[in-house]
């Protein structure tokens, strides 16, 4: 075969060539179904079953024999092909081993041994992909010579489709490297021939994108540049065509020091002179009347297509299933891509369709069905257009939808055509437009998930990843501008919600304004009220895209879309949404699922829903514009606050039976969510944490301020667990400030007590003292029993941590009295346990144990398992103090188990610290160090102050293990923490370190 590389001749002196007869033995036919490929990885199949071709060197041997076309390759030639000038010492034995293994894999008589060499005999054109490609090229040249360009292009495309990546992929050896280069050159020549025919047939616009990519991949290949210039010129892009020549001339001069070849220079002059002959194909041909038309209606793909690799592969594989490897149609493949407006459905579909064109040589049909607009295109109209594109005369096109659809399917029968149905309204619109015949495929895009389109492969397209979004932004704006302001660029794409349309608009605005920096654009997009207005450029606008979808909603859907967008949480549960809409759960779910189907809402998880950031802004704009009267917006958010407060109060009551806190909360009109399983109550609280805290911060206006603060009280488990401490603190600070500004004493006092609890947990005792003292000062104005009792209790806890024993005892005695006056027995038990810790620190251990046992009796009577664990914790401390380490370990271990079960992470870590103290008191340094390490890893109540205490204890444990250097490192770190805080523990640590400091 011309153009197909050969195995190099023998170069080993003294090695005998074949001495046998010059006649080849009788050919052995390759068994039916045995196939080989070299235009990609070297592979073999028996029927559809892939065969194992072995190691890279073994595949190199197989490739060398396949490319000999049945001729014998001597052992010396094969050694040279596999290893070149540096063969291993056992090269001949290795070749024989590879041949033996291949002979076992292949059918008998395929790999033959002859005259000291090997051959694969009778590899027909159907058995080796390279031979098939060469035969197709030869037939294409004949068809072109006969004037049948359509057939010639189809044959070229079929030949090119046989390539599966790099030829001889991952095959080692100098021979394979040489053949890879030659085969790639052969492929490029074939591709240039097909592109030349594309231009002859007037497909210049379609060829531009492919040629642009090819010239980028092969910048020094002048023929491709020439074809690109011609395609651009015929597309009316003369300036770009001339720019291609200028780029080529500069590149050749810089890289090779030569000028463009004569043909390229001549084409430049003809373009400059506007040669009329260039405006038409150089050799126009007339289609044979019997040949059907081959439409090529795909829009141009965007040159800056970015990311979506997994989706491209997934869709390409589905479309490829419409054709078998030998080109025979198998099934009619249908893929439907759904997603929010602006997410890039059309861009992805067009890109994939272009990539799949070689698999559909009989044409590609395209239509924008305008399903997102008020007047979608009727299927009858589309069918008429498609039939005309396929060569059907107007007079032969029937009137009815059914007849047109039947004729359409008949016309496509036996052909391989790809149909791209863009922007579909629903499945009913596209069903009459599906080919329904083997070998054809349909690719559909739309905002509605077409779950009712039987047999369709459904793809839900989401926004880009941050990396993909930044890549797209960079491609449009330019790498230099983005590189100097990467953080600002990340802010821009985040403000765009990683939505491709929004990113393209923002980047296009920046690219058109050279005086703007990326930071300027980021600042403009930072204002949520103006963001949608900023995201428009020319005829592109994010708001207009959303408006199309919103305009098609039914009134109930539109109301739900508007009102649910008002909530600030990251998502919303079905039960919460029902509260916002003032509807039962079942009809609410129907509404929300219908919004999911339109892609205006996302299903974050079963029973949870969320908006894309920009869609949420649009929904709020619609609420401000369309939700009348305006009070309905406030009422919806009030219902949401009621829902969260009522449900959180129920969780609080389940976790703390008998605690009167729930009796002091503001009344709600919504009953809240009920729990059939009490164990699910705490799960609900943690699952809704972000939404609850967002609702608090959104509800700090005068009408809802008290309820917002009470929601923080009811959700206090969020801070005790440590999982949501920072967000809880932020919400509490905002509530305190809002209450103070409003002059609302009760709300301010409660917010300050709640903030005190947060500050104690993080070890900021001075700040906590200020908040607790201010809350105490508000008691009279607030006239709030809850505030009086809890403020004193928190002041007592602060005194424990600051070693202010006398003050702490006074505070806690007040707290006990206040809790008793309020009838709050769990609160009384808490204050008793806290007072016990004061007494232990004052050396009064026996009374301390009695107080804890009183508290435990209350908790036990009320069935307060979690609070009982707090009491066991306090009892463990007291028991350790009096030398009852075994009993202390038992109490602390039981407490630890409960804290773990209830996800009280900070209490879990603090209990590990107390267990470490007990073990150290018992002389078990190793066990003490283990628990101290767990306390450090888990975290403790008390923040950095407690971390320093744990480090001090760990150092003592390590010192007991004679790990002196490590112990001192722990003490130094603890000392730096306590010194920074001005803590009283500094003196003890300096004493521990004094030998080291003196040294």
Please tell me about this protein's structure:
- This protein is of the alpha/beta class.
- Helix content is 60%, strand content 6%.
- The protein has 46 helices and 16 strands.
- The strands form five sheets. A five-stranded parallel sheet has the order 8-9-10-7-11, with helices on both faces. A three-stranded antiparallel sheet has the order 1-2-3, with no helix packed on it.
- Helix 13 packs parallel to helix 14.
- The protein is globular.
- The termini are far apart.
- The relative contact order is 0.03.
- The N terminus is likely disordered.
Question: Could you outline the blueprint of secondary structure elements for this entry?
Answer:
Elements: E1 34-37, E2 43-46, E3 49-51, H1 56-66, E4 73-74, H2 75-83, H3 91-105, E5 111-114, E6 117-120, H4 129-145, H5 149-160, H6 174-200, H7 204-217, H8 222-234, H9 238-255, H10 262-272, H11 309-320, E7 333-338, H12 345-356, E8 364-368, H13 379-389, H14 401-412, E9 418-424, H15 427-430, E10 441-446, E11 457-460, H16 466-477, H17 479-483, H18 486-495, H19 500-511, H20 518-526, H21 528-534, E12 536-537, E13 540-541, H22 542-550, H23 555-564, E14 572-573, H24 574-581, H25 585-597, E15 602-605, E16 608-610, H26 613-626, H27 631-655, H28 679-687, H29 689-698, H30 705-714, H31 717-720, H32 725-742, H33 745-761, H34 765-777, H35 779-782, H36 785-801, H37 805-822, H38 825-841, H39 845-862, H40 865-881, H41 885-901, H42 905-921, H43 925-938, H44 943-960, H45 964-981, H46 986-998
Parallel strand pairs: 7-10, 7-11, 8-9, 9-10
Antiparallel strand pairs: 1-2, 2-3, 4-6, 5-6, 12-13, 14-16, 15-16
Helix pairs in contact: 1-3, 2-3, 4-5, 5-6, 6-8, 7-8, 8-9, 8-10, 9-10, 11-12, 13-14, 16-18, 16-19, 18-20, 23-25, 23-26, 24-25, 24-27, 27-28, 27-30, 29-30, 29-32, 30-32, 30-33, 32-33, 33-34, 33-36, 34-36, 36-37, 36-38, 37-38, 38-39, 38-40, 39-40, 40-41, 40-42, 41-42, 42-43, 42-44, 43-44, ...
């Amino acid at each position: 075969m011309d153009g197909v590389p050969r195995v190099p001749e023998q170069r080993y002196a003294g090695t005998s060539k074949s001495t046998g007869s010059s006649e080849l033995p009788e050919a052995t036919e390759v068994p039916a179904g045995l196939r080989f490929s070299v235009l990609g990885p070297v592979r073999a199949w028996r029927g559809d079953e892939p065969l194992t071709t072995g190691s890279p060197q073994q595949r190199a041997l197989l490739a060398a024999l396949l490319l000999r076309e049945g001729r014998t390759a001597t052992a010396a030639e094969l050694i040279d092909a596999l290893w070149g000038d540096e063969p291993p010492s056992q090269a001949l034995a290795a070749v024989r081993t590879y041949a033996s293994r291949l002979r076992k894999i292949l059918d008998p008589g395929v790999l033959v041994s002859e005259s000291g060499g090997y051959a694969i005999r009778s590899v027909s054109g159907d058995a080796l992909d390279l031979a098939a490609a060469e035969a197709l090229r030869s037939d294409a040249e004949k068809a072109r010579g006969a004037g049948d360009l359509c057939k010639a292009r189809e044959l070229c495309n079929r030949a090119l489709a046989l390539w599966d990546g790099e030829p001889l992929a991952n095959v080692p050896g100098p021979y394979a490297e040489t053949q890879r280069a030659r085969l790639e050159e052969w492929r490029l020549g074939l591709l240039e021939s097909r592109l030349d025919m594309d231009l002859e047939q007037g497909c210049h616009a379609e060829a531009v994108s492919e040629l642009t990519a090819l010239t980028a991949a092969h910048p020094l290949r002048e023929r491709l540049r020439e074809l690109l210039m011609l395609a651009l010129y015929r597309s009316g892009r003369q300036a770009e065509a001339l720019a291609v020549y200028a780029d080529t001339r500069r590149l050749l001069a810089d890289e090779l020091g030569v000028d463009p070849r004569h043909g390229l220079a001549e084409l430049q002059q003809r373009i400059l002179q506007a040669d009329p002959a260039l405006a038409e194909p150089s050799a126009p041909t007339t289609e044979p009347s019997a040949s059907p038309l081959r439409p090529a209606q795909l829009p141009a793909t965007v040159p800056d297509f970015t990311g979506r690799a997994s989706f491209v592969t997934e869709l390409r594989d589905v479309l490829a299933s419409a054709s078998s490897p030998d080109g025979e149609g198998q099934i009619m493949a249908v893929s439907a891509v759904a997603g929010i407006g602006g997410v890039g459905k059309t861009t992805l579909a067009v890109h994939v369709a272009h990539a799949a064109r070689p698999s559909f040589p009989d044409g590609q049909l395209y239509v924008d069905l305008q399903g997102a607009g008020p007047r979608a295109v009727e299927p009858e109209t589309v069918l008429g257009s498609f039939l005309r594109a396929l060569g059907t005369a107007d007079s032969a096109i029937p009137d009815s939808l059914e007849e047109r659809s039947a004729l359409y399917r008949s016309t496509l029968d036996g052909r391989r055509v790809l149909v791209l149905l863009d922007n579909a309204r629903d499945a009913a619109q596209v069903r009459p437009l599906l080919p329904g015949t083997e070998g054809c495929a349909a690719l559909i895009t739309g905002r509605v998930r077409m779950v009712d389109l039987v047999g369709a492969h459904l793809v839900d397209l989401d926004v880009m990843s941050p990396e993909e979004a930044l890549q797209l932004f960079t491609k449009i704006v330019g790498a230099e501008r983005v590189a100097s302001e990467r953080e600002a660029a990340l802010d821009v794409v985040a403000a765009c919600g990683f939505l491709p349309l929004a990113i393209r608009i923002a980047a296009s605005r920046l690219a058109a304004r050279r005086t703007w920096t990326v930071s300027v654009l980021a600042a403009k997009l930072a204002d949520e009220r103006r963001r949608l207005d900023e995201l428009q450029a020319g005829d592109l606008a994010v708001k207009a895209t959303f408006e199309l979808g919103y305009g098609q909603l039914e009134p109930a859907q539109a109301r739900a879309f508007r009102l649910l967008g008002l909530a600030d949480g990251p998502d919303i549960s079905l039960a919460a949404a029902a509260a916002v809409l003032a509807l039962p759960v079942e009809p609410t779910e129907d509404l929300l699922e219908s919004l999911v189907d339109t892609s205006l809402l996302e299903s974050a998880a079963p029973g949870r829903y969320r908006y894309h950031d920009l869609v949420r802004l649009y929904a709020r704009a619609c609420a401000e514009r369309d939700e009348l009267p305006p009070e309905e917006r406030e009422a919806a958010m009030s219902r949401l606050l009621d829902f969260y407060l009522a449900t959180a109060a129920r969780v609080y009551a389940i976790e703390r039976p008998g605690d009167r806190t729930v009796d002091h909360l503001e009344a709600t009109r919504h009953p809240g969510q009920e729990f059939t399983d009490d164990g699910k109550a705490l799960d609900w609280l943690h699952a809704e944490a972000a939404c609850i805290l967002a609702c608090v911060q959104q509800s700090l206006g005068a009408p809802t301020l008290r309820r917002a603060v009470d929601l923080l009280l009811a959700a206090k488990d969020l801070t005790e667990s440590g999982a949501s401490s920072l967000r809880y603190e932020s919400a509490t600070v905002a509530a305190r400030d809002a209450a103070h500004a409003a002059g609302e004493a009760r709300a301010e006092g409660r917010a300050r007590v709640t903030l005190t609890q947060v500050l104690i947990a993080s070890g900021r005792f001075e700040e906590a003292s200020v908040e607790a003292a201010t809350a105490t000062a508000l008691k009279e104005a607030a006239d709030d029993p809850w505030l009086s009792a809890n403020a004193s209790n928190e002041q007592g806890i602060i005194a424990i941590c600051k070693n202010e024993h006398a003050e702490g005892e006074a505070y806690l005695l007040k707290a006990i009295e206040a809790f008793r006056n309020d009838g709050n027995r769990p609160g009384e038990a808490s204050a008793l346990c806290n007072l016990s810790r004061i007494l232990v620190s004052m050396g009064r251990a026996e009374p301390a144990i009695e107080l804890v046992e009183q508290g435990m009796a209350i908790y036990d009577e009320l069935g307060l398992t979690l609070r009982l664990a707090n009491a066991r914790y306090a009892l463990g401390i007291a028991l350790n103090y009096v030398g009852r380490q075994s009993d202390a370990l038992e109490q602390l271990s039981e407490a630890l188990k409960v804290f773990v079960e209830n996800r009280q992470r900070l209490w879990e870590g603090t209990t590990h610290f107390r267990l470490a103290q007990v073990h150290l008191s018992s002389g078990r340094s190793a066990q003490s160090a283990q628990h101290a390490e767990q306390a450090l890893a888990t975290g403790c109540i008390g923040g950095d102050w407690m971390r320093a205490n744990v480090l001090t204890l760990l150092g003592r444990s390590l010192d007991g293990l004679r790990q002196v250097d490590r112990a001192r490192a722990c003490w130094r770190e603890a000392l730096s923490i306590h010194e920074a805080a001005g803590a009283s523990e500094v003196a003890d640590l300096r004493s521990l370190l004094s030998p080291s400091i003196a040294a």
